[in-house]
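Morning F.,

Quick status update on the modeling queue. The single chain you submitted on Monday has been processed. Sequence for confirmation:
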Amino acid sequence: MSAEGRLNVVLMWHMHQPQYRDTNNGQYEQPWTYLHAIKDYVDMAAHLEANPQARAVVNFAPVLLDQLDDYAAQVQGFLHGGGVIHDSLLNSLAHPAPPVDDESRLHLLRACLRANEKRFIDRFPAYRALADMARWCIEHPQTLGYLDEQFFTDILVWYHLAWLGETVRRSDRRIQALQDRARGYSLQERRELLGIIGELLGGLVERYRRLAEAGRIELSVSPYAHPIVPLLLDLHAAREAMPEVSLPSIEAYPGGRQRAEWHLREAQRCFRRHFGFEARGCWPSEGGVSEATLELLEEHGFQWAASGESVLFNSLRCDPHQQEQRREDSLFRPYHLQGRQLACFFRDDGLSDAIGFTYSDWHADDAVANLIHHLENIAAAEGSLPVERRVVSIILDGENAWEYYPENGYYFLSTLYQKLVEHPRLNLTTFSACLDVGVEAAPLSRLVAGSWVYGTFSTWIGDADKNRGWEMLAEAKRVFDETVAEGRLDAETLRAAEEQLAICEGSDWFWWFGDYNPSGTVQDFDRLFRLQLANLYQRLGRSAPEYLAHAFSFGGTTAAVAHGGVMRHGQPGGD
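Structure tokens below.
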């Protein structure tokens, strides 16, 4: 067992971005993969490296790993061999001359303003001044001709400086010199900044691999392109937690089990290629689980999975022998389906959401003290489950929360790891380590299908726009199956079509569809989803249907959405 009398605490950070690359021309339609890499993935690795006693689970979506690899290769190719960078924003940093036409200039200025106003722009007076000028010019486009090349150079440099991880900012003298210069950046300085970005991208996966090999973190994986596996297996699984939900006008997703198996096989293949070993654990995309999903994960060799708190309590309410258990005896332990071995852990929504949302405006010492106070209460609470058999699962997005914290969460994360490691009654650990020392999974007679968001699949199905997305995807899958059955594809083309189909099956498109999300972001994802579907038809040698030329989801909310909609609370009413 773990140390007697110590509460097991697992921090799991989920790293995930969808495929932003247009697979027909290699061009990245959004820059978020490389920007989060040089900020959040770099910082998280550095915090773990800085505290040798710290432990965490870091989960990667394979489609993100492949994009990181591609970005690193592109930057190195440009710097050393004159290759092309297929990202308009990053290429603008690298290219000697800024755009000259008004439309391209407006596009660049808008891109360089896509940053947290309080934490990114206001922090740096030079960037603040550039941003104010850029906004004025966007409102008065007739003035664009008065801007010289230096203005565009400086705002590009500052945008990328602001997006760098705090640990980089504090340790790299080259970055400090660029910040101190403040304005008038030369082409050579831009190239130096691009080289630093290339170093960060190129060394990132290896840093996590070394941490895992040293036993300091556990690496886990999600299905390849981040699909909602329970819905691939059975769309009607959505009714288990939402009996009245309106489903798409299709009976099932065609060949869903085979597709789910493809995503799991490819996940391990990709994970093994990047890290050299297979993952023991799987964070099913969005914590989406069902009985069939857990059984499939076990069949593919996984030993543990995780989901949301509401999934567990929905399930326990179906079992008359377990529904009266105390929270300390129910939430803070893993479970397995009867007759199965795979252990499933369940997220503490309150603590996870406190990190994701509440603590960003607190002083780091107060925030960490508050979190530890809650953990101490869990450790001290009476219950039939000994404290050393309890596991508190704190699971959240590893990238989007930190831009709302001062200095990208630098003080919070460094204090968090330090205080958890030093605490005499807390054991900072990993899911596999808990199982290895004998933390036992309790039997669960029934699992109600759901996700970490509200314990349902409402974020991905049930809304008219989301359902339309499923219908479009199912039609593309029908054409895929028909084309494969006809034997029209050679092995290479089939492989490319399978990967393209996987991209279309990702969860992110459905996350954003609907009128309760910000219109600009919804329209970006609507367009990219239709682009990826059209690319699939092209790979199959088929004509894309006319409806792919027309937007179908527009968003429209003008109300403030927490963290811009990129994150959600685990419980209804929090957003």
